[in-house]
Every structure is written in C-alpha cells, then in structure tokens.
C-alpha cells in the first residue's frame, strides 16, 4: 500500500454537500442568540436563566400562598362572626396566625412522560426517556382506569422496562431535577418486530393433481403424474361428494389407475418432496381416442 | 477578543479550511459520516462560544483537530451511541483498492488508526501527532509501527516506508 491510497480513499469519502452552509447558518443563529444576551458564556447564561426562573417561581408561589392565606383568614372570620358560640371560637388574631403559619397551598402540575426508553437502570426500576430518569415505585399506578382505555400490555404488567420500548404516563414531580417518580404509567409497548406483520406460513395449502398418468406402481395404489408420485390411501376421498354434484359414472372415476389415464384431484402435502398422498381424486378416466 | 464581524469571518474561514479535515478525523474515529458531521458542528459551536485566540493557523487547526478527537471520544461514550446498531457506512462507490485500504484502517483499534490517519491523511509528523494526542513521541511511534504492522497483515505493503522521528 502506498500512502496516497489511504489519502485518496479518505478524500473521496462523501460528506454532505451543504455541510458548510448548514453549519454556518446554525452558528450564526447561535451568534444571534448570544448577541441578544451579551453574556458570552453559555453556561453562565443558562445558570442565570435558571436562577431567574427559580426566583420568579418562588415569588409567584409566595404571592399565591399569602393571597390564599388572606382569603382563608377572611373567610374564617366571616364564618366565625355568624356563629352563636363565641366561647369555642378562636380569636381573629389566632385565626390569622394559624393561617399564615401554614405553608401556602401549591398546585401540582402533571408532566407527560412520553417517548422511547433509551436507558434502563440496573435494578430495572428506573428508565430514561429523553433526558429524564423516571423511577417506577410502589405508588406508581400501572395502566389507565378510564373505562375506554386499552388493556395494559404484558410488558407493563410485568414491569419489564426495556430499551426501545415506548412508554407513556405522567408525573407530578419537578422534571427540571432530571429524575422523577412516575405517578401513572398508562402503557408500555414493545416495538413491533420486523416479522410481526408477516402472515403465518404454517398453514396448509392444497395443490392440484392434474394430468396424465405416466407410470403406475406394482401394487396399483400409486401413480406418477407430472413427475410426482401420488399414492391413493384409505383416507383419500374418491369422487365429487358435494350435495349439488351429479351422480358420477364409473367411466369417469375408474377404480384402476392405468398409464395414459387422465386424473384430477388435489393434495395438501408438499409437492417438492416428489411423493404425496392424494387428499381427493375427482376423476380417473381413459381419454377418448 | 473578536468583534462580531471578525468572528463571522474567522468561523467562515475555519469552516472552509478545516471542516473536511475535521469530518474525516471524526469519521476515522466514529466510522459514520453523519455522526462525524454532527461532531464537527459541535466543535464549531464550541469555537464560537469559547472564541479561542490562536498564535497561527497551524495552532488553530491543531486545536480544532484536538477538539474533534475529544468530542468524538465523548460521543463514543454516550449511552445512546453504545446501545444503537448502526448500518455500516457504504463505501462501495470507492475504487476497490481504496475501499479495501480504508476498511482495513477503520478495522484497526482507534489508538492505532488515529495516528495513522493523522500521519497518512494530514501529513503530521510523530512530534506533531504527539502534541495533538497529548502523548509521548515514542508512544506515537509505537502506535504507528504497530498499526502499520497490523495493516501489513491485513492488506500487505508498507514495509518499505519509514517515518522520521
């Protein structure tokens, strides 16, 4: 081998024609993004965005909590004012203190878990969908309880989480942590195998026996038609037995198989073996001269 | 520090000059052109974000190649890359001899095929390869010799070639 062969081969390896242009466009898009936000370091940028989001969330949470506590306090005060038993009612001050000491009522947000499993933990109880690790705990509900929902798959019932399986469900936990426990797993579907759609090939197929007898065995029970030896067994049905069929003459269905006779019928056995048992013989007659 | 115009120009120039080299080295590592192009794009993205300052164009090329090797290594380690079973790259359009040689090099362990690629495709010396791969010159020499010997077993030849230290 010469040096030039490898270099020439590598040079000829085909790459995308528009690679440079596509990459340049992508890079300029990134540059535009970073120009809008003058911070150059993307990790710092990401961190700041996260912090800002977290602060915003915290602020919103507390605002909602305090507002809820205030409404609750006003409600309790107004209810207590209408009651006739002032001895058992706590004072307004106590009420407000109670309400504000409780944590704010926060709503839960359900996030869909939907996609293909890319990794499964060693214990098989966690799997990764996208960038999210999902843990299946004892509290995780398997399958859907809706009346019209499909039956959960066997994989789901057995909790067999495998790479490539399609999973759907949801969690009410914070997905930004990267790891959550699933509240519900609706279904777990194994990807369709390549041969799943193919029809079964194990069925029997009837093949016509049709032609002239070229040879007959010594015992007279077998004959050769079109290079296939056909044996007439006690199970072979002779003649046409359909209710609408007319009566068959002995001429058309002779009992003896002779060389030159025209024979018709069928077999359910494999013709490629060269020897089959006849399932049915319709006719066996000497052709007109 | 670059201004926006200079950055655009330096990126475009680097793309024109080095993208093919980077794709080819990533291909030598990952054996798949689509992955190699993805890695090369990531390298340019890093180039854009870090905006490194280079002493000269050779320094720039070496940095890009080093980063391409690192990012290719990272891709090899990822779970999704390990778990998949990709269709081998179709090289049937290459002439028979070239295809055989390329397949033989790609079948080598990566510690041999990367120095071989850098030497035979990029034309780097052992010292330059050692600097790029952050290894000792003697080690790179051994890798090259061992790689050549394995190639000789596979396809013959190369025995008359020498690499100057």
Automatic annotation (TrEMBL), chain A:
Keywords: Membrane, Transmembrane, Transmembrane helix
Transmembrane stretches, start-end: 59-79
Organism: Paenibacillus catalpae
Top-level taxon: Bacteria
Lineage of the species this protein comes from: Bacteria, Bacillati, Bacillota, Bacilli, Bacillales
Protein's name according to its UniProt entry: Uncharacterized protein
Automatic annotation (TrEMBL), chain B:
Transmembrane segments: none
GO biological process: DNA-templated transcription initiation
This protein's UniProt keywords: Sigma factor, Transcription, Transcription regulation
Molecular functions per Gene Ontology: DNA binding; sigma factor activity
Domain RNA polymerase sigma factor 70 region 4 type: 100-150
One matching Pfam family: Sigma70_r4_2
Domain RNA polymerase sigma-70 region: 18-78
Family listed: Belongs to the sigma-70 factor family. ECF subfamily.
Record-linked PANTHER family: RNA POLYMERASE ECF-TYPE SIGMA FACTO, RNA POLYMERASE SIGMA FACTOR SIGV
NCBIfam families per the UniProt record, alphabetical: sigma70-ECF
Protein name: RNA polymerase sigma-70 factor, ECF subfamily
């Amino acid at each position: 081998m010469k040096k030039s062969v490898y270099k020439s081969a590598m040079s000829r390896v085909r790459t995308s024609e528009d690679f440079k242009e596509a990459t340049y466009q992508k890079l300029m898009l990134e540059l535009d993004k970073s120009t809008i936000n003058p911070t150059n370091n993307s990790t710092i940028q990401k961190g700041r965005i996260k912090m800002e989001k977290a602060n915003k969330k915290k602020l919103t949470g507390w605002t909602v909590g305090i507002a809820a506590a205030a409404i609750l306090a006003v409600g309790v005060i107004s209810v207590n004012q209408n009651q006739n038993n002032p001895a058992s009612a706590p004072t307004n001050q106590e009420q407000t203190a109670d309400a504000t000491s409780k944590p704010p009522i926060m709503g839960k947000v359900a996030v869909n878990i939907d996609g293909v499993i890319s990794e499964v933990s060693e214990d098989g109880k966690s799997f990764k969908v996208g960038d999210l690790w999902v843990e299946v705990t004892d509290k995780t509900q398997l399958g859907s309880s809706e009346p019209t929902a499909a039956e959960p798959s066997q994989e789901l019932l057995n909790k067999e989480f495998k790479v490539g399986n399609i999973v759907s469900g949801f969690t009410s936990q914070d997905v930004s942590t990267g790891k959550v426990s699933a509240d519900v797993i609706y279904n777990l579907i194994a990807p369709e195998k390549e041969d799943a759609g193919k029809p079964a090939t194990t069925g029997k197929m009837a093949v016509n026996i049709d032609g002239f007898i070229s040879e007959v065995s010594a015992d007279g029970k077998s004959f050769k038609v079109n290079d296939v030896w056909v044996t007439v067994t006690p199970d072979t049905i002779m003649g046409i037995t359909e209710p609408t069929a007319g009566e068959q003459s002995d001429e058309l269905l002779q009992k003896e198989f002779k060389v030159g006779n025209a024979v018709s019928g069928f077999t359910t056995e494999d013709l490629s073996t060269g020897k089959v048992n006849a399932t049915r013989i319709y006719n066996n007659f000497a052709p007109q001269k | 520090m670059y201004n926006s115009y200079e950055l655009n120009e330096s990126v475009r120039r680097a793309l024109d000059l080095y993208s093919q080299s980077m794709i080819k080295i990533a291909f030598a590592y990952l054996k798949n052109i689509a992955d190699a192009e993805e890695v090369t794009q990531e390298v340019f993205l890093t180039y854009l974000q870090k905006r490194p300052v280079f002493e000269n164009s050779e320094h720039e090329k070496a940095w890009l190649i080093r980063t391409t090797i690192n990012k290719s290594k990272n891709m090899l380690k990822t779970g999704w890359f390990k778990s998949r079973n990709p269709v081998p790259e179709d090289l049937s359009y290459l002439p028979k001899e070239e295809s055989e040689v390329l397949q033989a090099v790609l079948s080598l362990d990566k510690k041999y095929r990367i120095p071989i690629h850098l030497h035979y495709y990029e034309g780097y010396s052992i010292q330059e390869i050692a600097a790029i791969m952050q290894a000792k010159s003697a080690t790179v020499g051994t890798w090259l010799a061992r790689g050549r010997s394995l190639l000789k077993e596979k396809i013959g030849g190369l025995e008359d070639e020498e690499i100057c230290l």
